[in-house]
Design brief:
Elements lengths: L1 H21 L13 H73 L5 H54 L2 H7 L7 H15 L2 H49 L4
């Protein structure tokens, strides 16, 4: 029985050393002596490896979050610019029509003509309605972007972040559940296997988050298209309706 235990211990120690050496890790010179200090150095080296993996994942997560933030920033700027153009068009058209109605009232010599007053009030009402429509479009854009960020994108990023954070404490957590005195070689071997299983985690996390970023960008494109169409329709309909209103106002006598 003791021969089997000894064999497992030797194999575990060998597996650990092979993994560390295969990664071209510079183990301290004391590790070559095979003494207690050597095993401590291997634990320290594993802690460094897992923390480096955590750092690499965190770095890429930060880059992806920045890309997502940049997408929102650009989209907000585009929305505000587009809404600003439509608002300016509406203001100019409202003033043009009101001035034309006033001029017609002066021409007929009756600025208090009920027909003139009615058309003038209708111009104000339609401008107010257009402003309300723009507010609704902005609200829909905000709601869609907030949903895409808070419901779909950030929960996935946070899940990857939590998984990455766990890597920082792998060695400490392993020691808390192991007999580091009598089974240290087995503990080191298990850490080696754990690291080998996590070694491609950066690529897996990147693939997952980039997919979420791609999905988010698709939402961005859809929202942009819908809000663009909505804002264009608001401006176009207002100008058309104000043209009809002016025609009716010019018939007032």
């Amino acid at each position: 029985m003791w021969q089997k235990i000894a064999l497992v211990t030797v194999l575990a120690s060998f597996a650990c050393q092979q993994l560390v050496w295969s990664k071209t890790v510079a183990v301290q010179a004391a590790a070559k002596d095979g003494g207690p200090r050597a095993e401590s150095d291997v634990l320290i080296e594993f802690d460094r490896l897992f923390n480096q993996l955590h750092y690499d994942i965190d770095y890429n997560l930060r880059v992806l979050r920045m890309n997502q933030s940049l997408a929102i920033k650009n989209l907000n700027a585009q929305f505000i610019s587009r809404f600003g153009i439509v608002i300016t068009e509406i203001q100019h058209e409202k003033l043009r029509v009101k001035d034309a109605i006033l001029q017609h009232a002066l021409d007929i010599g009756d600025t208090q003509n009920p027909c003139i007053v009615e058309k003038n009030n209708e111009a104000v009402r339609q401008a107010t309605q257009a402003a309300s429509d723009i507010s609704l479009a902005a609200e829909l854009a905000y709601a869609d972007m907030a949903t895409a960020s808070r419901v779909f994108f950030y929960p996935q990023v946070q899940a990857f972040q939590n998984s990455s954070t766990d890597l920082q404490s792998v060695v400490l957590e392993k020691l808390s559940r192991s007999n580091a005195v009598t089974e240290l070689d087995i503990t080191l071997a298990e850490l080696a296997y754990m690291y080998e299983a996590e070694e491609d985690k950066v690529e897996r996390v990147l693939a997952g988050v980039e997919q979420e970023l791609s999905n988010f960008q698709e939402v961005v494109n859809n929202v942009r298209r819908d809000i663009w169409a909505m804002s264009d329709a608001i401006g176009r309909n207002f100008i058309f309706n104000m043209g009809l209103l002016l025609e009716d106002a010019l018939d007032c006598s």
